[in-house]
C-alpha cells in the first residue's frame, strides 16, 4: 500500500491582506482545484486548521507509485504545491492525530518554481491593477484545468512530435501586464492585448526598466503595426534570457503586448497557439470617476464607485476569436465582478462559444472547488472566476 504523508502550509500573509477572512477558503479552493486535476487522486483530505493562531491548509499525499519515474513524479508533486499562490511555508506533519503526542511540523524546502525576483510582480502600482496573488491563483487554476495539468509545475509542455516548448499564455484584456508577468516569472511565453494604448506604453517602459535593472539579457521593441497601409496600433515585444547562456543559445522567453480591441484577437496570433487564456474582465466600475449623469439623493454627484455595465456582451463577441487561438484541450479562465453579471451569464457565454465549463454537475456531496472562489474585493466588487476547456 502507498505510504501517505501529511502536509500543512502556512497561508501567505499577503493572502490574508488581499482576502481577509476569505484567505484560508481561497487557499483551500486553489489547492482542491489543482489536486483534482493534477494528482490523479493521490492528494486528499484537504482542510484548514489554525495552529498557534495562524491559518494553515492541510492535506495528505500518497507517495508516487513505485517505479523508475517515482522520483520525477515526487519532484513534480512538490513543485505543484510550491507554486500555489497561497503557500508561504510548507511543512510535513509528523505525529499527532492517531499517534500519541502533539503533531510536529517539519519544514520542507519549497521547489523553486519562479525564474525571476518577485519584484517583477509587485513593483508596478496603478489604479485598476489586478492583485498579483489573485492573478497567480487564476493562472494556476486555469493551467491546471488543461488536459496537461502537470505542466503547471514548470516552463515546459510537450509538443505533439515529442519535443518540448514553453507553455503559452494569452491575456486578451491584459492592462499593464499582471498576467504577462506571472507567465514570464514561470518561464512561459506570454502575450497580451489591451485596447488602451497607454497601458501598452506603460508596460513597455516598466518591463524594459525592470530587465535593465536586473541585468537580464533581452531584446525589446515597440512598433506600430500596419496592414494594407493602415495603422493597427502598437505592439511591444521582448525576448528574455533567464541566464546569459540561454539568451545566447536563443532559448528565450517571449513577452508581447498588442494595442488592439480584443474582438480582433484572432487576427493577431496563429490559430491553436495558446495553452491557456487568462483574463480579469473589466469590472463595470469606474474607480474614482462618476458615471455621467449620476446624482446622489440630494442631487449632488455621488462619491461612491458607480456600477456601469456587465462584461458579458464584450465577452460574447470576443470569445469566438479567443477559442480559435486556443489549442484543443486548452483552457480559458476569466475573473469578473458578480455584482454586474451573474455566474450563469458567464457560463452561458463560454458554453455558447463551444467550451466545457469546469465544475457543476457533481453527484457527490464534496464541495465543488471550481465554485469556491467568490470573494469580496471592495464595496463595488465581489469577484469570482470561471474556467472552461476547449474539447479535444
Ligand atoms: C480589470 S482590467 C485588467 C487589469 C490587468 N489584469 C492589470 O492588472 O493590469 C480590464 C482591462 O480590459 C481592457 N479592455 C476593456 N475592453 C477591452 C477591449 N474591447 N479590448 C481589449 N481590452 C479591453 C481595459 O483597458 C483594462 O485594461
Automatic annotation (TrEMBL):
UniProt feature, compositional bias: Basic and acidic residues: 295-308
SUPFAM superfamilies: S-adenosyl-L-methionine-dependent methyltransferases
Highest taxon, organism lineage: Bacteria
Region (Disordered): 285-308
Gene3D superfamilies reported in the protein's UniProt record: Vaccinia Virus protein VP39 (3.40.50.150)
UniProt-recorded name of the protein: Uncharacterized protein
Amino acid at each position: 500500500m502507498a505510504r501517505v504523508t501529511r502536509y500543512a502550509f502556512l497561508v501567505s500573509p499577503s493572502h490574508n491582506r488581499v482576502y481577509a477572512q476569505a484567505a484560508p477558503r481561497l487557499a483551500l479552493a486553489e489547492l482542491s482545484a489543482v489536486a483534482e486535476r493534477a494528482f490523479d487522486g493521490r492528494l486528499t483530505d484537504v482542510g484548514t486548521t489554525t495552529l498557534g493562531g495562524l491559518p494553515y491548509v492541510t492535506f495528505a499525499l500518497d507517495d508516487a507509485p513505485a517505479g523508475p519515474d517515482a522520483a520525477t513524479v515526487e519532484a513534480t508533486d512538490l513543485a505543484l504545491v510550491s507554486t500555489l499562490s497561497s503557500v508561504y511555508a510548507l511543512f510535513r506533519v509528523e505525529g499527532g492525530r492517531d499517534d500519541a503526542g502533539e503533531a510536529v511540523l517539519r519544514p520542507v524546502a519549497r521547489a523553486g518554481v519562479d525564474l525571476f525576483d518577485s519584484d517583477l510582480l509587485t513593483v508596478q502600482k496603478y489604479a485598476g491593477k489586478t492583485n498579483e496573488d489573485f492573478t497567480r491563483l487564476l493562472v494556476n487554476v486555469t493551467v491546471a484545468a488543461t488536459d496537461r495539468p502537470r505542466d503547471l509545475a514548470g516552463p515546459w509542455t510537450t509538443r505533439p512530435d515529442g519535443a518540448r516548448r514553453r507553455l503559452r499564455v494569452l491575456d486578451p484584456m491584459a492592462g499593464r501586464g499582471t498576467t504577462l508577468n506571472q507567465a514570464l516569472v514561470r518561464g512561459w511565453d506570454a502575450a497580451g492585448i489591451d485596447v488602451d494604448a497607454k497601458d501598452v506604453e506603460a508596460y513597455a517602459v516598466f518591463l524594459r526598466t525592470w530587465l535593465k535593472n536586473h541585468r537580464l539579457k533581452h531584446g525589446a521593441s515597440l512598433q506600430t503595426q500596419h496592414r494594407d497601409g493602415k495603422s493597427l496600433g502598437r505592439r511591444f515585444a521582448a525576448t528574455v534570457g533567464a541566464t546569459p547562456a540561454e539568451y545566447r543559445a536563443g532559448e528565450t522567453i517571449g513577452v508581447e503586448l498588442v494595442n488592439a480591441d480584443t474582438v480582433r484577437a484572432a487576427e493577431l496570433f496563429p490559430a491553436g497557439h495558446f495553452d491557456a487564456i487568462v483574463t480579469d474582465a473589466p469590472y463595470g466600475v469606474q474607480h474614482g470617476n462618476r458615471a455621467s449623469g449620476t446624482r446622489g439623493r440630494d442631487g449632488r454627484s455621488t462619491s461612491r464607485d458607480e456600477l456601469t455595465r456587465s462584461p458579458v456582451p464584450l465577452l460574447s463577441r470576443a470569445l469566438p476569436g479567443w477559442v480559435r487561438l486556443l489549442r484543443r484541450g486548452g483552457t480559458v479562465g476569466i475573473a469578473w465582478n458578480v455584482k454586474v453579471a451573474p455566474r450563469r451569464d458567464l457560463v452561458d457565454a463560454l458554453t455558447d462559444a463551444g467550451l466545457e465549463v469546469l465544475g457543476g454537475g457533481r453527484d457527490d456531496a464534496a464541495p465543488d472547488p471550481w465554485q469556491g472562489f467568490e470573494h469580496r474585493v471592495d464595496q463595488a466588487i465581489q469577484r469570482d472566476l470561471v474556467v472552461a476547456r476547449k474539447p479535444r
